[in-house]
């Protein structure tokens, strides 16, 4: 079948993971969560006691990371050296440190290369989501989307994911603080040339999925 690469970028809590997975299902595409790769690398560094301020050590860890990540949108799996880290990489420990790892240029280069390999191995039939997919990882994607949402909506969504009764300050740090740190790495707040912005603040997941599907259909 024809190639179809869909690139989705956006801040935390924009809904990009749920939406990207559902779009992958509807089109029968593979799914790549690049944030999970940065999280897996962070977990691996913390597990091995790598000093996150040691740029060379973090870059080495990125190149050596024994990562096995599934690309089935219905069965997410993230294994590091055979250990299932799917739960732990979503926890506060990893979330608080992931931006520090993601600011390492050599580590990013190593992960971007892996992401491009995953896209090639899918036969270029994949939805890939993150912060720099439309600009760095797959600027040649058929459909390129920036999924945004205002702060209120992003905090509410992240709060629900955390179980509904989050510590307000911690939640604000996890969403707004992390986005501020991530913004120093890559620009995911403004759409690059040719990238379509979808604001999901007042849309349901299904409405957002439809909006993305419209962009994909127009691009195909
Ligand atoms: O998307 P998610 O919130 O799981 O991403 C976790 C972290 O990984 C982000 O906060 C960011 O620091 C980093 N990241 C990145 N580039 C990507 C995807 C994620 O720098 N393409």
UniProtKB/TrEMBL annotation:
<comment type="similarity">
    <text>Belongs to the cytidylate kinase family. Type 1 subfamily.</text>
</comment>
<dbReference type="InterPro" id="IPR011994">
    <property type="entry name" value="Cytidylate_kinase_dom"/>
</dbReference>
<keyword id="KW-0808">Transferase</keyword>
<keyword id="KW-0963">Cytoplasm</keyword>
<keyword id="KW-0547">Nucleotide-binding</keyword>
<dbReference type="GO" id="GO:0006220">
    <property type="term" value="P:pyrimidine nucleotide metabolic process"/>
</dbReference>
<dbReference type="Pfam" id="PF02224">
    <property type="entry name" value="Cytidylate_kin"/>
</dbReference>
<dbReference type="GO" id="GO:0005737">
    <property type="term" value="C:cytoplasm"/>
</dbReference>
<feature type="domain" description="Cytidylate kinase">
    <location>
        <begin position="6"/>
        <end position="216"/>
    </location>
</feature>
<dbReference type="GO" id="GO:0005524">
    <property type="term" value="F:ATP binding"/>
</dbReference>
<feature type="binding site">
    <location>
        <begin position="10"/>
        <end position="18"/>
    </location>
    <ligand>
        <name>ATP</name>
    </ligand>
</feature>
<dbReference type="GO" id="GO:0036431">
    <property type="term" value="F:dCMP kinase activity"/>
</dbReference>
<keyword id="KW-0418">Kinase</keyword>
<dbReference type="InterPro" id="IPR027417">
    <property type="entry name" value="P-loop_NTPase"/>
</dbReference>
<keyword id="KW-0067">ATP-binding</keyword>
<protein>
    <recommendedName>
        <fullName>Cytidylate kinase</fullName>
        <ecNumber>2.7.4.25</ecNumber>
    </recommendedName>
</protein>
<dbReference type="InterPro" id="IPR003136">
    <property type="entry name" value="Cytidylate_kin"/>
</dbReference>
